[in-house]
Amino acid sequence: MKTIYETKSNGKMKQNNNDNEILLTDLINYLFRKSLHIFLVVLIFGICGVIYSLLLPNKYTSEALLVSSQSGSGSELKSLASQYGGIAALAGINLSGGESSRLEQSVELLKSWYFVEIVIVKYGWKPSLMAANYWNAELGELELDQELFDSETMSWKGIDDKNLEPSSWETFSVVEDNFIVSFDNKTGFIQVSFEHLSPQFASEFVTVMIEELNAYFKSLDVQASRSNIEFLKEKIEKTEYKEMQNVFYKMIEDQSKTLMLATANSEYLVRSIIPAKVAEVKSSPSRIIICITITFVGGTLAILYFLISFLYRESQNDHKQ
């Protein structure tokens, strides 16, 4: 036998369920009546999405896949380090540092503000990076923004005695957004890519960055090898023990190999197994995705607006009652 309380509760629950069903039905009918307005909003957003996507310039990506060039010499150095590492440390020479560590160092160097700035200044790339306006595919030329950079005088313009030339950090920030360098520890591959309005400049950027990376480490190792050789020769002259002299001679031989490899090989640290090519197909923007996203946002906003409008109207009616 049901109590009075249970009967009242069931009655309220049924009433609430009926009210919710009525409210949901009214909402669906309301949205259906406003379907033309929703369609117009979606259409407007869709048109805006198409216009916006068409105004965006095409960008092209150039990629290269690198691998270590020092696999052979690296193994010899590891063998030498395992045999004479302690003696070398006493002599003040570091034989440690494997192949993978040099590759990891190269990745971090490529991504650094310090190294990127050196290369940009050396090749005068700042206008191409910061004043690029349009890629003329017919002429194969990159057109610069004449309001920022004067191509005839090759100088940055100014407004009210204020130079419009971007700072070093601003230039690096643009490069950082478009220059991707990744290292795979398992395969030992380094993947380098750069996106730009000009496919030719993108390819040039990747190629030159790799060349400068090799030149940088080559210069470091040449200087270190020459310094080590001179140091070891002094040690040999001051050492009377034959065994120690033989160890130092072995170290000099290894340093001479490094010096010879650095001098003769342009791809000293890394070599391209897949070199950078001039892209023929754009990498961005994805205009279809942009149009779909903007259209979806428009439809969502329209539905939310009419939903809030309906709920507000219902709340006003409840207050009146």
Architecture overview:
There is one protein chain. With 321 residues, the protein is of the alpha+beta class. It folds into 2 domains: 23-54 and 304-320, no CATH class; 60-274, Bacterial polysaccharide co-polymerase-like (2-Layer Sandwich). The protein is 65% helix and 13% strand. The chain has 10 helices and 10 strands. The protein has a 4-stranded antiparallel beta sheet. A two-stranded antiparallel sheet has the order 2-3. Strands 4-5 form a two-stranded antiparallel sheet. The chain is elongated. Residues 11-15 and 72-82 have low confidence and may be disordered.
**Element order, helices and strands?**
HHEHHHHEEEEEEHEEHHEH
CATH topology of the largest domain: Bacterial polysaccharide co-polymerase-like
Helix-strand category = alpha+beta
| Outline | elongated
User: Into which percent range does the helicity of residues fall?
Assistant: 55-70%
In spatial order, strands of the major sheet run 8-9-1-10
Total helices: the number is: 10
Uncertain runs are: 11-15, 72-82
What is the CATH top level name of the largest domain?
Answer: Alpha Beta
Q: What is the number of independent domains?
A: 2
CATH architectural designation of the largest domain: 2-Layer Sandwich
Average of per-residue pLDDT values: 82
Distance between the termini: 36 Å
Beta-strand content: 5-15%
Biggest beta sheet attributes = 4 strands, antiparallel
Q: Radius of gyration, rounded?
A: 34 Å
Total beta-strand segments: 10
